[in-house]
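stage 2 :: seqdesign
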């Protein structure tokens, strides 16, 4: 038996490959286009593992995907592939539409055609698991309950709109064509191999580089934080136990303001890697112009996956952020390998216009 997963040279996908191979002997075929956030060094320790097959390809290339499905005959497809950074979607939305909407469409069609070639029992057991985000639900007020699976879709950025569109395609392919789909909507992930444009790795990298720690607006935006390995184990649970056609929200039950997250990181770094001048990394905090259309609060109601599938997160934010910071301190070569000229150009474009520097 084999599974095929897309986008697994990126942050969540590569962590999933590591978690999968740690917990099962079932082979995994990893298909990735290797855009800017796709990084083969994320997979360095498993590239020679006989259970892991890496294929450099675009999931929208039907000829390649059809051949991979024919040769490897997976029992499931897991779709991690996505453009995922809100700020990038504001600057260049077309890439998000192409990958997140059209890419999902082509993968659904490839899966539908492939499943039609399977014997009845195999076709019945086949699953298509689509990994999505809580951002499709929009923004919450401070007093509202967390997003449940029946919450109305209200995407507010090009990124979240493209993911909402892909979610709707997955739902339609289940109801129209009978494709056995599963959809997961997760809260903000953090952990190893996180590309340093996102808040937590950006703050860790900038703090250690003695650079400003940019915080949008007043820093009171609230997110529910989920340690990435917990997310990967939740996906494995949904794949093995989930009911086709259902949606499962995955959260860490750890709501924090952005400012609280940054101050926590600074305090941890003060203890683990003290500055030579005796000061605190918190002195580098810089408030910058807010993101356009910045959602104020996300929160996940993960009671469904707990009650129906028995999954709960193992890490709280305190334990998860300790593991995350320790990983970055132990892997400076990984950070340096991804902080390339292209990344520096992006940071300059993104933040200079907000600070005037």
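stage 2 :: out
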């Amino acid at each position: 038996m084999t599974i095929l997963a897309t986008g697994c040279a990126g942050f969540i996908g590569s962590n999933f490959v590591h978690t999968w191979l740690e917990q099962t002997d079932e082979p995994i075929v990893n298909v990735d286009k290797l855009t800017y956030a796709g990084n083969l060094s994320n997979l360095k320790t498993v590239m020679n593992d006989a259970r892991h097959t890496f294929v450099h390809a675009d999931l929208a290339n039907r000829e390649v995907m059809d051949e991979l499905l024919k040769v490897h005959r997976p029992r499931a497809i897991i779709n991690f592939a996505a453009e995922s950074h809100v700020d990038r979607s504001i600057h260049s939305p077309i890439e998000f539409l192409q990958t997140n909407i059209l890419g999902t469409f082509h993968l659904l069609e490839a899966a539908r055609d492939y499943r039609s070639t399977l014997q009845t029992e195999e076709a019945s057991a086949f699953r298509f698991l689509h990994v999505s985000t809580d951002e499709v639900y929009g923004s919450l007020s401070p007093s509202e309950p967390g997003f449940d699976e029946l919450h109305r879709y209200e995407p507010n950025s090009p990124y979240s709109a493209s993911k909402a569109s892909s979610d709707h395609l997955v739902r339609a392919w289940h109801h129209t064509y009978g494709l056995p789909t599963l959809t997961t909507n997760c809260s903000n992930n953090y952990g190893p191999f996180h590309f340093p444009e996102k808040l937590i790795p950006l703050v860790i990298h900038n703090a250690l580089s003695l650079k400003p720690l940019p915080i949008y607006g007043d820093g009171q935006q609230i997110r529910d934080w989920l340690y990435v390995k917990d997310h990967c184990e939740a996906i494995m649970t949904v794949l093995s136990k989930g009911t086709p056609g259902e949606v499962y929200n995955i959260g860490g039950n750890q709501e924090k303001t952005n400012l609280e997250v940054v101050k926590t990181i600074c305090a941890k770094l003060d203890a683990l890697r003290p500055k030579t001048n005796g000061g605190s990394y918190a002195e580098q905090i810089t408030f910058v112009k807010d993101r356009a259309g910045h959602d104020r609060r996300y929160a996940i109601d993960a009671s469904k996956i707990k009650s129906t599938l028995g999954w709960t997160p193992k890490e709280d934010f305190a334990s998860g952020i300790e593991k995350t910071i320790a990983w970055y301190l132990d892997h400076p070569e990984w950070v340096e390998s991804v902080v390339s000229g292209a990344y520096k150009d992006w940071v300059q474009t993104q933040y200079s216009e907000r600070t005037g520097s």
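stage 3 :: structure notes
- The longest strand covers residues 127-133.
- Residues 30 and 54 are 5 Å apart (CA to CA).
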